[in-house]
Amino acid sequence: MANRMVLNETSYIGAGAIENIVSEAQIRGYKKALIVTDKDLIKFNVVSNVTDLLKQNDLAFVIFDEVKPNPTINVVKSGIEKFKAVGADYLIAIGGGSSIDTAKAIGIIINNPEFSDVRSLEGAVVTNNKCVPIIAVPTTAGTAAEVTINYVVTDEEKKRKFVCVDPHDIPVIAVVDSKMMSSMPKGLTAATGMDALTHAIEGYITKGAWELTDTLHLKAIEIISRSLRSAVANEPKGREDMALGQYVAGMGFSNVGLGLVHGMAHPLGAFYSTPHGVANAVILPYVMEYNAAYTGEKYREIARHMGVEGVDNMSKEEYRKAAIGAVRKLSEDVKIPKTLKEIGVKEEDLHALAESALADACTPGNPRDTNVQEIFEIYKSIY
Per-residue pLDDT tens for 67-115? Predict the structure, then answer.
């Protein structure tokens, strides 16, 4: 069986990378951008870093700032209407995963109107046309949405998040500029960084993993583990390394999928609007314990790349505990909450959350097959 790798067309990675947006838009003949972002990024003058460049070079744009965490079907529909009304021909997504995911959904439906019912995009959908060109400018170091073929939309009516997987949604240009991430507060830096670590670890142990993606995920684990603490301290080197680490993780997991951590995290976003990175970080060590016996020798390499010494002299049980311990220590050092109760989860919802997690598109990639009762027990142990 052949393994597929899908990557975005062009990426610029490093401080000052946003300056390349102008030349790319000009060379490609783009006429008018719809900038997809949120009000806070405008308020704190993050978006102006890009719009000032566009103004200076007479590149037309209109701003759509209705994005919110865990973007909804209605937000996507509003963005589609705005895109059509202003006569845009490309999208610039500025923000975290929410902005980039919203742009992906808008871009897909504009060029594939038969999927105008946003819910019809759930799962691995085969659309006929590439989405509207997207220039993705992440302002968080975590989701790697700028280089993945995935996006997530929240169905508020049904209290669920659904994952969409489509090679046609990948941004043509990723602009990973650590300076665009420098205004992230400590809590958001920590949460998105742990999201990136979750991507790397789940991508490494998922059923679809193979040698090329293993290489990417292990490197991502190494970079994230050594740089997240300094990124939270807002040190420039830590910021720059985290920007790279999360991107490398995205290159990998986009092509092999994730697992039960994400399957369990998505319902928390749908039920309580829990920040996705926080949900992943709280759940990750518990699911690692659940999966440990189904991962062969991979936890040894996770431990090694997280800086644990002496792993070659450890038994399987020892290096598995060491890997999980390293994850817990990193999470603790960057002040991630430890329990579901701390982040507002209601005990009476645990069974409904378990049912939703089992149905999530990420769950089948988990190395250990599961069921509602076992997921419920994991949630209960974290509560």
Answer: 988 889 999 999 999 999 999 999 999 999 999 999 999 999 999 999 9
* Residue with token string 């958001």: 188
pLDDT over 80 (residue 1): no
Q: Answer yes or no: are the C-beta atoms of 259 and 363 closer than 8 Å.
A: yes
- Give dist(CA 225, CA 324) in Å, integer: 13
Query: Is residue 141 within 8 Å of 195, Cβ to Cβ?
Result: no
Q: Judge whether 62 and 35 are in contact, CB under 8 Å.
A: yes
The rounded distance, in Å, linking the Cα atoms of 226 and 242 is 9
- Contact status, residue 204 vs residue 298, Cβ threshold 8 Å: yes
For the stretch 5-17, pLDDT in tens is 999 999 999 999 9
Annotate 335-357 with DSSP letters as a single string: T---STGGGT--GGGHHHHHHHH
pLDDT for res 69: 86
In this predicted model, what pLDDT tens digit does every residue of 17-61 receive, in sequence order? 999 999 999 999 999 999 999 999 999 999 999 999 999 999 999
The amino acid occupying position 232 is V
Phi, psi dihedral angles at 371 (to 5 degrees): -155, 175
Report how far residue 172's alpha carbon sits from residue 9's, in angstroms, rounded to the nearest whole number.
5
Residue 130: closest CA among 170, 91, 96: 170
Each residue of 156-175: pLDDT tens digit?
888 888 889 999 999 999 99
Q: E-assigned strands of the chain?
A: 10-13, 32-36, 60-64, 90-95, 123-124, 134-138, 150-155, 160-165, 173-176
Is 92 in contact with 21 (CB distance < 8 Å)? yes
